[in-house]
């Protein structure tokens, strides 16, 4: 997990494999950068990237001060490079309808490019599963699917579990034994086996935090998206997985729910509400501790975040790793090891601490830091990190995927790559 000096890390838009287009808005052209990734050996591909003007850490501080109308005090200005963040991407505030139009075009672009990276036409896609923390519209997944040319008959699943959203969506596509599926009359993992599925996270966090007064959130988050194309059971198989909830009673990371949720605690041991909007449209919504005053987000200090995510997160990974080892022993493959680890990029220090705690549990893993150019992009980060690792994966590799987010929600799984 070595870090690099800021001056040798180019911005995403400056990298050679990034294709840039510009989307017109009322205030000007918004740059959108997308990089395609394809690995024919394992039969997977996808696309990741970001949109908006690029700000390095110094320029970001000036942007925040302009929006707040006051300077950041020295104790409020974070050492962002030490947290693994060198750039963030933001857009200007727009009329709400313009935000909807912009993010619909952005989302559709990522779906089209991810399908193309797999060699699929949009008309061939049979399911779209998107994690998004603060959707610009309740029907965001349906909107971007329609705009991308994906059939109306395709299954569309929106997962609103903060930064865990995309990992949870992937888990839903792979694990037929997930408990919170009981609210549905269908088992998505069984139904999607052998089908062409797009799974990802698309996060317009610049819009989401534009009116926030939380100085930590304003420094951490930015726009980002990552969408992976897979065929469950062929290009990727689940070996072991677990989903877990620990409600954030104290509101260490409080997030406003800009999606349908009753706001009530469940009596059946889950705070996830599943609604079937139509025959093929499903929404998975996690209960959040919301900020007082109606703001979009409120974050506690670093120690609170560490306590929130590391302790429970390590327990979930330890449990999944134990299940994986037991499965390998039953298959006569005792000693099989993980080739790669893909983890939500909350920030570098949290991930380093998780790796250290896992090492203490006997789980020796490398947690590479892959998202220096984006900041914390919430649900998008797991898929972006996966796509940056995908070119090195080979058939039969075992990969740990670890998602976690506010709420608090955890999805950890170990998968085998196909091909």
Structure description:
The protein is of the alpha+beta class. The protein has one domain: Thiolase/Chalcone synthase (Peroxisomal Thiolase, Chain A, domain 1), CATH 3.40.47. Helices cover 29% and strands 26% of the residues. It has ten helices and 17 strands. It has a nine-stranded mixed sheet, sandwiched between helices. Strand 12 and strand 13 form a beta hairpin. Helix 2 crosses helix 3 and helix 8 packs across helix 9. The radius of gyration is 20 Å and the shape is globular.
Content of β-strand: 25-35%
Shape verdict: globular
Helix content: 25-40%
| Cross-sheet strand order for the largest sheet | 1-2-3-9-8-6-7-13-12
The fourth-level CATH homologous superfamily is Thiolase/Chalcone synthase
CATH structural fold name: Peroxisomal Thiolase, Chain A, domain 1
Number of strands: 17
**Main sheet, how many strands, which sense, barrel?**
9 strands, mixed
Average per-residue pLDDT, rounded, comes to 93
- Helix/strand/pairing category: alpha+beta
CATH class: Alpha Beta
- Our Rg estimate from Cα atoms comes to 20 Å
Helix-strand layout with pairing:
Layout: E1 19-25, E2 28-39, E3 44-51, E4 53-56, H1 57-68, E5 87-90, H2 96-117, E6 127-131, H3 140-148, E7 155-160, H4 165-174, H5 188-192, E8 197-203, H6 205-208, H7 215-220, E9 224-230, E10 236-245, E11 253-255, E12 272-278, E13 281-286, E14 297-299, H8 302-330, E15 340-343, H9 348-360, H10 380-389, E16 398-405, E17 409-417
Parallel strand pairs: 6-7, 6-8, 7-13, 15-16
Antiparallel strand pairs: 1-2, 2-3, 3-9, 4-5, 8-9, 10-17, 11-14, 12-13, 16-17
